[in-house]
Amino acid sequence: MTERLITHLRHVDLAVPDLASQRSFYTGQWGLTEVATDTGLSFLAAEGSPEQYVVRLRQATDKRIDLIAFGAATPADVDKLAQTLARNGVKLVSEPGAVVTPGGGYGFRFFDNEGRTVEVSADVALRAHRKVEEGESIPVRLSHVVINSFDPEGTVAFYERHLGFALSDILTHPRMGNMMWFLRCNDWHHSFAVARCPHPSLHHASFEMRGIDEYMRGTGRLLRAGVEKIWGPGRHKAGNNTFTYFLDPQGNTVEYTTELERLDEDTWHPGLHDITDPAVSDQWGTANRMDEFVAAKSFNDPDRGLFLAPPV
């Protein structure tokens, strides 16, 4: 097994044609806090997270994932991972060096097998965060990011081979085969997942709430505000986490969740979960049915940034 040098998920960076509406949504409705700005950029933190920011927005002509960022324990681990990737033929976008975004640190970027930009960094300064209080319906942290892949088997193999991610569970369909793979880089059931799709894109980004009450309050607050709900509220079987999915102004799916399962990695064995079983999608039976409408929204628009590193 590949040595795991990744410790956790840091942030997801999105390029959007309308920065103003996106910034307004994430700060005014979703519950993130803008902590820094630059020309055409907005850095958004979760109040309960020590990460400098969990979402970065960038004004751009094309909608895309700019990058997905992960943490490493030390600069030495960053160097080791960069050297191993380069030796194995992975295309580096930048060599290890100083990170120039809020919090600084030491990191590098590379393209994954389908051309997404991935960043790995260490020694990023911790943000002065706070405890999210009882009843506060705002995100505590970025829980996980799920991507759509035209070649999901190849994408899963890339993250397992090169980054040491481990498989937690698979969603499967009796006719269409395996549909989603949940991958972990620590003892959370998943920090990253890969879904089968006609094209690479963002499937969804998920934000953890303080607890069930705060999760439901947040869900209700967005519904009252008229934000389009795609799916939920309910509780998945794989990961055992709650879910409500909404669309942001640019058509990206974002999720409120809580109680994602933590695993004993020494004893855990991946399971195959049949998504035609209603209890797999939603143990509670409270969510709307997973149908073609929900699936189509989760496909998102094709990512326009493959093998094109973001300018920042």
UniProtKB/TrEMBL annotation:
GO molecular function, one term: dioxygenase activity
CDD domains documented for this protein: BphC5-RrK37_N_like (cd08362)
Keyword Protein biosynthesis appears in the UniProt entry: no
Keyword Metal-binding: yes
A single BP term in Gene Ontology: L-methylmalonyl-CoA metabolic process
Pfam families: Glyoxalase
Positions of the VOC domain: 8-123, 141-259
Record's keyword terms, sorted: Dioxygenase, Metal-binding, Oxidoreductase
SUPFAM superfamilies in UniProt: Glyoxalase/Bleomycin resistance protein/Dihydroxybiphenyl dioxygenase (SSF54593)
Protein name: Catechol-2,3-dioxygenase
Organism of derivation: Lentzea fradiae
